[in-house]
Write a structure and sequence with these properties.
- This protein has 118 residues and is an all-alpha fold.
- It has one domain (22-108).
- The protein has 3 helices and no strands.
- The longest helix is centred in the C-terminal third of the chain and has 58 residues, at 60-117.
- The radius of gyration is 27 Å and the shape is elongated.
- The mean pLDDT is 86.
- Pfam families: Snf7.
- One of its GO terms (biological process) is vesicle budding from membrane.
- Belongs to the SNF7 family.
């Protein structure tokens, strides 16, 4: 009866394997590079808009170009914020990897010293 009310416990979904610190850092770096590429494209678009604004006479067409330029500028600022976050994450991951390596080295040193002392 209880199985009908609450159901049967299914096998837990398989979790993806844990990634190493280096893999996480590499992924973060790759995402940062893709964000940099988006920022470069937006810079090129902003340059085009600036030239178009210079050539266009005042009026609705010029205002439409200005609106597109402002939208591109807002997107650029958002991407720059994301890039900053990703670069700080990558830096933090590199620091953790370095600390982990130092701990492993210290463990090896202690093992070597204890073998010599025996």
């Amino acid at each position: 009866m209880m199985k009908r009310v609450f159901g049967v416990n299914k096998e837990k979904e398989k979790q993806p394997p844990l990634t190493s610190i280096e893999e996480a850092s590499n992924r973060s770096t790759k995402r940062g590079e893709s964000v940099d590429e988006k920022i470069r494209k937006l810079d090129a678009a902003l340059t085009r808009y600036k030239e178009q604004i210079k050539r266009t006479r005042p009026g609705p067409a010029r205002e439409a170009i200005k609106a597109r330029a402002l939208r591109a500028l807002k997107q650029k600022r958002i991407y720059e914020g994301q890039r900053d976050v990703l670069s700080s994450q990558s830096f933090n991951l590199d620091q953790v990897a370095s600390a982990a390596e130092e701990i492993k080295d210290a463990q090896q040193t202690v093992k070597g010293v204890t073998k010599i002392g025996q």
